[in-house]
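Friendly challenge for the regulars: who can give me the structure tokens for this chain first? No prize, just bragging rights.
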Amino acid sequence: MDNKKMLLVFPPQWTPVSPHFAVPSLIGQLKNEGFNAFALDLNIEFYHYILDRNYIQNSLDKIKVQFEEAQKKIVKIYSPSKKEADYSFEEKMLFYKYNKLKNFISLKYKDFSVVPNFINSAMQTFNTQEFYNPVSLIKSMNVIDKALEIISLQYAPLSIGFDSVINPFFKFNYESIKYFVLDKNTNIFSEFYEKQINSILEKDYGFIAISINSSSQIVAGLTLAYMLKKRTKAHINIGGNFFGRIADELKKHNEFFDLFADSVSIEEGEGPVVELAKFFYEKLPIEQVPNLMYQKDGVVYLNPKMKPIKLDAMHNLNLDEYDLTKYFAPELVVPYQSSRGCYWGKCSFCDQDFGQNFNIKNVDKVISEFKEFKEKYNLNKFEFIDESVSPIYMNELSDKIFENNLDVNYFCDARLETAFSSEILNKAYKSGLKMILWGLESGSDKVMELINKGIDLNKRFEILKDSCDAGIWNFAFIFFGFPAETREDALKTIEMLVKNKDIIHSYGRSVFTMGRHAKLAQEPQKYGIDKIYPAEEEFSPNINFDSSGSNPAQLKEILDLCRNECAVAYKNPLWMYLRYREWLFLYLCQYTTKWISDYNVNLK
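First reply, four minutes later:
Bragging rights claimed.
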């Protein structure tokens, strides 16, 4: 290979507790195929850039200046005779920002003014044993929460957290995305990139790929793409899960390719990225690069898709370019994939496996890769990001871990299938399994039948008890707001959590949204959907609908009730403060399931 260089970038915003899987996986393929490829996690760099004493102090200083400026502008445009609709889009954002600044200055500024003094000690908590002191960890996160609130205010209406970026004025359509990418008043990422971009350009990469896997990365990812398109002749590629889901809509926007990208990669990337590298090395014409969308002579083309390569044929993740000490955890939890897609694949509500073809990795390869992580990076803690690990696979994996005398800890998602015997669960726990994230979903048999979970509803609590008895932490995914769910159905879910808190150690609650590729969209009336609306936001991953179930007010009442009743039942538990599954897992490796279950936080 010649000296051509490729860069794969992971942009903000993503929870900065471990590297995202996508870029290390792609880098692994490229490097092992002989390409000169490098990785850059700008997400972790971004959080270290903003969570800095001087940056936070400057943000505090800017808040007062911006408030005075906003106040002067409000005086000029406000009229008591005007209705909200009479104001322009920019004026509405100005009112929103003014009110946020006003409330902060009058209610919080004095208390928050000390935050810069505590940020360094808060940041140190994550890379020391103090992380495992619950009081220290909670206090440190409170400082970081306050710091991020301060930082966000200067970019209001945007608000950035440790696990989200929110802008109530943002819409999932091309014009809105373009507006907020170009609007420096609300784009928190522009200044950060200005500090970073020269170091990228100096390395003279001829190919730069940006991985956008979540809607929270859209503005940040495209801001970087826009800046690079203006300042380098490198081929700018956008990959990741998000744009693959709305490829048909993206194809209609020629300007996207003028402003942001030379090409967009669709669906599973490990095979196509190697073919794209061949194009970059002038060994393949662009027309023959599979899964690729690009513009040529004013026309947007989408090349045919290739058959995805099997997991057994893939190379291991490559973390060579990552500074593993920067992540917000004392030990890195490696995202690991032993299967892709879902072996059940029939749940009506789900479209998580869209664009994936189910295949499974040989257990011997898993063991080999675990050994490589230990030898190369001194890492032995893993998060299986599979849609679900089957009982048979878990049993075989446990046996292989014992045979090879491996010292590993791991957690995974699983379905509550009767094949999860107490024998398998006990064996898995002894092999290093600390936590299972179960798809419990609902306490209503009616809802469970409609979502087509495909499990024995009468046996699922027996499985949870066996898992608990083995020493495994049971995390339950539940949701409210399924189209046909009544208040009575929702109350059964709350009752299920409260009644079984001894075997449901923790839960994650969500509100149903219908993905545009969900199976129930094909038979809406069967699931209580009265009407599906054409997408007002063409890039939205979700579909709006009317249903026979709860309206927004009723749903809010149910969510409040769930929070209140579970707060009483679980008695302010520690796990609610261990916000991220990786942190909970690390605590489980440090302590025991019983210790964490019994630990109730006293904030007085």
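The longest helix spans residues 53-77. The mean pLDDT is 93. Your move, everyone else.
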